[in-house]
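Please fill in the sequence for the structure shown.

STRUCTURE ENCODING:
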């Protein structure tokens, strides 16, 4: 059976973790610092801290914003359920927003409506590795925390060619800043199903110096139990270094899978080509029942799962289904097919055949 998810742990990752174990350097230390530096070389942020979970990272980000208790925090209905649990645990009020069916992202008009309803902060989840086509979302006058767990190292498009010296008439679609560099803070989850994995943990990133000064102060007072251990950092360090190689493989598979469904009844999300999105698995919005597709794929030896089985809408479906119609529809109809670098050619071809013949 071809599993839906795989962390793609190769020898380099194993050797990095084993070195920490042999040297008995498994708590927070040097590898934590090296992990942050490796990500900084790609993203060019001002500062970051590596923590033991995305939930802890969100707690630090909200503490850095110094919000009043009871403040309304805007969340995507398709965001992972740990977001709403953390927001409520910290004494804030979640304001869950609906999404667009064509890409699974919260659109700007719904964010503006959320602001009218009292939303003070937006946690913008870049679901399935897709970035918004414009950075206008980050100019609404409210703090934005990006969740880049599935969109790590993707790039925003430029709003205009003048924004970059490298833009030209020959290549007018030059890319802008990396995902996570437009909000006040960003969370790069590193759990087992994220683009970059540490086996558990997250990096909380401050793109600008002003936010980094605040975050650094909080970090200096943090207990060691909040900080990512070196054993996890060692795994993530290699994953960051191998990202380009792994993403090239994922994008090749994504292209093949997309072609396989072009003539069929089911559609994948609209996304920009190139580095403007990350090939996070293969979501397919179904035009038939999920159970039928799951059963068909299983008979062919392929595991298919609901793309948003661990989302806020899945956790609170009864309460949110009427106000988040598109998100509820995607919960029921969006299937996730296997797509990861460890897929061999034979398995990839089997998935292509199944995608091309889905009921």
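FILLED IN BY: designer on duty
SEQUENCE:
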């Amino acid at each position: 059976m071809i599993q839906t998810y795989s962390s793609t742990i190769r020898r380099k990752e194993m050797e990095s973790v084993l070195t920490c174990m042999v040297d008995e350097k498994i708590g927070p230390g040097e590898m934590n610092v090296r992990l942050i530096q490796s990500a900084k070389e790609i993203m060019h942020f001002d500062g970051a801290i590596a923590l033991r979970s995305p939930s802890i990272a969100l707690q630090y980000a909200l503490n850095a914003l110094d919000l009043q208790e009871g403040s309304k925090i805007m969340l995507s209905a398709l965001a992972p359920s740990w977001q709403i649990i953390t927001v409520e645990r910290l004494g804030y009020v979640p304001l869950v927003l609906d999404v667009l069916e064509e890409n699974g992202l919260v659109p700007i008009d719904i964010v503006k409506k959320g602001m009218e309803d009292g939303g003070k902060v937006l946690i913008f989840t870049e679901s399935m590795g897709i970035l918004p086509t414009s950075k206008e979302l980050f100019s609404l006058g409210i703090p934005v925390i990006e969740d880049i767990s599935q969109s790590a190292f993707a790039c925003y498009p430029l709003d205009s060619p003048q924004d970059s010296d490298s833009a030209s008439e020959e290549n007018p679609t030059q890319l802008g800043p990396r995902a996570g560099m437009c909000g006040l803070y960003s969370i790069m989850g590193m759990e087992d199903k994220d683009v970059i994995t540490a086996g558990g943990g997250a990096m909380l990133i401050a793109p600008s110096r002003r936010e980094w000064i605040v975050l650094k102060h909080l970090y200096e007072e943090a207990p060691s139990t909040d900080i990512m251990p070196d054993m996890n950092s060692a795994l993530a360090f290699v994953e960051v270094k191998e990202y380009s190689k792994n993403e090239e493989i994922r994008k090749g598979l994504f292209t093949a899978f997309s072609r396989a469904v072009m003539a069929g009844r089911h559609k994948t999300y609209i996304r920009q080509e190139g580095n403007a999105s990350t090939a996070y698995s293969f979501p397919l919005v179904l035009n038939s029942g999920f159970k039928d597709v799951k059963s068909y794929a299983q008979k062919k030896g392929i595991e298919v799962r609901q793309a948003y089985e661990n989302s806020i809408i899945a956790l609170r479906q009864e309460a949110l289904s009427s106000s988040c119609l598109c998100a509820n529809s995607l919960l029921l109809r969006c299937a996730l097919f296997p797509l990861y670098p460890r897929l061999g050619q034979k398995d990839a071809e089997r998935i292509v055949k199944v995608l091309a013949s889905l009921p």
